[in-house]
Every structure is written in C-alpha cells, then in structure tokens.
Amino acid sequence: MSAKQFSNPVVRWIDHRLPVFSFLDHELHEYPTPKNLNYFWNFGSLAGITLVIMIVTGIVLAMSYTPHVDHAFDSVERIMRDVNHGWLLRYIHMNGASFFFIVVYIHIFRGLYYGSYKAPRELLWMLGVVILLLMMATAFMGYVLPWGQMSFWGATVITNLFSAIPLVGDSIVTLLWGGFSVDNPTLNRFFALHYLMPFLIAGVVILHIIALHRFGSNNPIGIDASGPQDTVPFHPYYTIKDFFGLSVFLSLFAAAVFFFPNFMGHPDNYIPADPMQTPAHIVPEWYFLPFYAILRAVPDKLGGVLAMFGAIAVLFVLPWLDRSPVRSARFRPAFKIFFWLFAIDCVVLGYLGGQPAEGIYVVLSRVATVWYFLHFLVFLPLLSVFETPRPLPQSISSPVLGGGAALAGAAANAAKEKV
Amino acid sequence: MRRSLTAILLSLLAGPALAAGGGDVLIKERDWSFSGPLGTYDKAAMQRGFQAYQEVCAGCHSLDLIAFRNLADLGYNEAEIKAIAAEYDIEDGPDDDGEMFTRPGRPADRFPAPYANNQAARASNNGALPPDLSLIVKARANGANYLYSLLTSYGEAPAGTEVPDGMHYNAAYSGKMIAMPQPLYGDDVSYADGADSSAEGIAADLVQFLAWTAEPKMETRKRTGVATMLFLLVLVGFSYRAMKVIWSDVKKA
Known about the structure:
The complex is a heterodimer of chains A (about 425) and B (about 250). Chain A has a domain at about 290-390. Helix content of chain A is about 65%, strand content about 0%. Chain A has 16 helices and two strands. In chain A, helix 6 (about 120-145) packs antiparallel against helix 9, helix 6 packs across helix 12 and helix 11 (about 290-295) crosses helix 12 (about 300-315). The radius of gyration of chain A is 24 Å and the shape is globular. The two termini of chain A are about 30 Å apart. The model of chain A is unreliable at about 400-419 (pLDDT under 50). Chain B is mainly alpha-helical and about 250 residues long. Chain B folds into two domains: about 20-65 and about 110-215, Cytochrome Bc1 Complex, Chain D, domain 2, CATH 1.10.760.10; about 215-255. Chain B has helices spanning about 1-25, 45-55, 80-85, 120-125, 145-150, 200-215, 220-245, and strands at about 90, 100-105, 170, 175-180. The longest helix of chain B is centred in the last third of the chain and has 30 residues, at about 220-245. The termini of chain B are far apart. Classes of the chains: A mainly alpha (about 425), B mainly alpha (about 250). Chains A and B meet through helix 4, helix 5, helix 10 and helix 16 of A and helix 7 of B.
C-alpha cells in the first residue's frame, strides 16, 4: 500500500500509525474500475447497503420484540401500534427482505450473463453463493419470528425436510426444534440465529470485496482492462453512479414500504400461529418459490431435498462447468439464448412454487426442474465446446474489431489521450 | 367391493361439486375511502362502525389489540373516551387482599374479550371459534372487500344444497357454509347521524372501523410516504445531474 501524504496533519499522524486512510483511499478512491460498467453493476453496492439497512432496523426491532410463543405475535403488533415509528421500522425490515432478494437475484443474473464467475474470479463467485445461502437461512428464520400462521407452518414444513437425511435426519430435526415439535425453544433459537447470521453475512461480504478488489470488476465486454485508458478511479465516478442508483432504488423501496407494505407478504401471517389448524396452502415467501417448486417436483422426499440444495450447490461448481474462455454473453450467441431460457425457467419455477402441487403444475415443475439442471450440467459444458464465439475487441476502449471499425476505435483512443 | 365402487363413484360426483363450492366465492368490490396511495379513513363511518361493533359483533368477537385510548383516531376527545371506557367493566387485581376485582374501564385499558378463553368461546358457539377482529382486514386476502361481502352475502341455499345443523349459507365464504349466523339484517343499529342503516350500509361502516383496527397507522404512513417520495424524487434528479456532470469528461469508447 502506497503511503499517501494527506494534507490534514491529524489524518497524516494517524495514517502513519494506522493506515486506515491509505486503505480507504486505495480501495474506495483511486481503485481503478472499468469505465464501461452498465447499471447492472449497481446491484453489488445496493446489496451491501440493503444489508446495512436490515441490520440497523433489525437491531432496533429486537429491542421491542419478545421471542416467546405467547408474546411474539403481540409484541410485533405492539411495535406496529405503540412503538414510536415502529410501523416504519417493521415495514422497512419486512419489505427489506424482499428487496434484498430482488437486488441479489439481479446481481447474480448479471454475473451469469457477463461470465463474472470465470477465472480469476471463481472464489469471488463462490463467496457470493455462500452469502446467498446465509441470506436464505436468515430470511427463513426471520419469517418465523412474528409467529403467525405462515411462520409456524413454514417452519414446520422446512424443518421437517431435514428428517429426510438418512441416519442423522431425525436428530438434526430435534436439534433444530429444541424439542419434539416447532415450539418455544424453536422460536428462541431461530431468534438467536436470526440475530447472529447477518453478521456472518457481513463477514463474508468483506471477503467477497477483498476477492473483488484483487482483480477488479468484470465488465459488460468481459475482457480485462488493458491499461489506465480503460479505467476510471472509483471515486468520484462510481461513488456518484452508485449514489444515483441508490436514490432510484430507495424510491422504489419507499413506494413499497409506504404504499404497498403487505403486497409481498401473506395475509395468513396476520393470524396468530395455531398448531391445531393447518392453512389451506402453505407457501413460502416469494423468493423461495423456485426452490420450493424444485423440492416438490421430485416425488421422493430425500430426492426433493437433495434437488433443492443441489440447485444451489451447482452454482458453486459453475466456474468449472462453463469452460468457455469468453466471459460476456455479448460475444456468445448460443449462450445468450440459453441464458434467457434459463432466466425464463427460473421465473416459471417461481410461479409453479406458488401453485398447489397437483395436476399440470406437477408436470410443469418437473420439466422446469430438469431444465434447470440440464442448463448447468449439460448445456453449459457442451456450449463451451461447440459454440463459436464472436471475435473479441482488443480492449475496453476500442470495443470494435477489424477494418474501418478498428480505425474508429483508434481514433477514439487518440481522442481519449487528448483528454 | 360393491360398496367401495359406490364410494368411488360418489366421490367422483361430489368432487366437482365440492370444488365449485370451495372455489368460486362471490366477492363484491367497493371503492373504499382508505384504498389507494392517498386514501384516508372516513371518521364518521368509523364511529358508526364502532357503534355497530359494540352493538352487533362484540357479543362474540374480541378486539384484543385495541385500547380505548386508540379511539382518539376516530375523532373522540379525551372526555368522550373516558366515558366510553367507563361503560366497560374491567377485571383488575389482585388487590392487597389477593382478590381480583372489577372496576370501570380507563382509556389505557384494552377492550375486554366476550369470553374468558377459546374453550368458553367454542362452547357458546356450537364448537366454532369467533376470531378476534383486530387484524381481520389484514388477515384475509382482499380483506376489506372480503369482509364486506361476507357480511352481506347470507341467503337461502340454492335448491339441492343441504345446510348442516348450526351452519349458514354464505356465498362469500370458502365452502359457502359458515358457522356464524347472519349478523346484519338492516336497521340492526340506529345511527344518530341518520346514515344508511341497511345491512350494506352497516357492513361498509364496520369495514371502515375494522380496517382502522388492523392498520391504525395507515394515514401517518401514507403522509410520511408522500413527503419521503418527494424528497427521493428530488434526490434522483440531483444525483442524476451530478452523475452526468462528473462523467462528462469520460469518453465512452
């Protein structure tokens, strides 16, 4: 790390002994970033900010929440009614979970489209998958805390899945429950873990950022920056772009919180949990629906659980399934088609996860599940062998290759050098 | 063997009928003053709905989450709220002798429940449990319209439909058989302001009142929302302009 000379003497004194200012300057100011990032690259910082929003509102909510089966539901309603701005905190936290997943899913699909998981960013990608898994666990446990009907029955269905694991399954379920059914001990440990896990996520996010800053961001063209003419310093160029993205994101988030706060929730969760009465349809939150569809598509319980976890696990090995040296889908015509088919497949799975498991829905779920795995295990490996990518540009600054176009690129470069 | 065949045939016949009974419930859509991003509650209607709740619903349905002090949202002043609370007997205690006692209600008290516990409620209602109404509008899909429809869709069962003992035909209820007897016939309450006291009028007033009990902070929420959105839209404009200015010296390609 270069010892930068700061003009403020206090900053200089501290930085000489504790180089936090040099560190921040290096990672957030001069950090060279490809100049051609599009708006899909906003979603990383948005995810980080949403995590902070969730942690801050969550801590304040925890001050008024009571993790006990007899009081949890009423304590949430007390937050909604009697705690100053409690309704706001709770609606931000509740909708924040949905928006966190919206942002992260876009972030993931951006990575899939532009090949951001490829060398040398495999560990960066895998850390991201770890974050996704932790988020899912956190969101699931958080949904249990208000102790409404869907909280209780969702917890019952999902924890029961673990009983499918051979030999140790029942012991794991007992451990999750802290007893022999979903009850007060379950609520207590879910609350403890729900409070803990966001900080684990924050830790993995730091690793994710360290790995990111090793080679810098990928970009829409997917080729490495070849020099300073291809990059701009992170500040002010991307700080302001991220800030603009944040203001748009917050506008949509606020619209949901203030005007449609229960749109993404389920009415049944405003009914206090009743272990004696099963709701007509037990559905998880929308962000779990694709995985729920995969779970139910497999007729065998253990098979369904394996398929559901396999749907995430396959992401870990994605960098070794797609061996094409070309990152960006812009230069991979066949991959681009399969990417969009896969995206549609995920939306279809999400729709099917919200439908009752009967009739045509089961058949469609199976087709969509098979397609999901075919995409990763068959199509991507085959594409990397048989697809002929389009020619890549020489650099980010001259994205067009050959003939007059190359001349135009050179002209642009020349113009750039004057600046 | 023959018996099981008959059973299968019967279930095949009954299947579609049951599906039809459970599925196509009749929901009447109404324009509510509180729907939409700027909607507000109608205070006069809420006061009438509160009166109807007291005179019609409160015999069986509790309102656990509402305290008398909350009635200020309906437009009652402090003296009126004290007077309303004092009409109720609240069990308190134990006193210095270890005895429970009843006293007149105070604004800080919550509405007392009609039954001591769920078992007592079921025992008095043919085994059915009258749900607490505090959150009922949020706890049902399309809650306001659903509740309005439920209250106004009682009637004679169509020919051929048998209504079991203790059940009532209601076109808006899932399965069309509901344990709750018809609560509104029209003129069930006499309104001091001379408002419409038909069954539909009272039902609409009750929906206003119960929409408020489910979401008492709705008006504050929407007002805060408007201010927040204005701020954010200005922020979007300024940050977009700032971004364009900062990026103006970077060549695209």
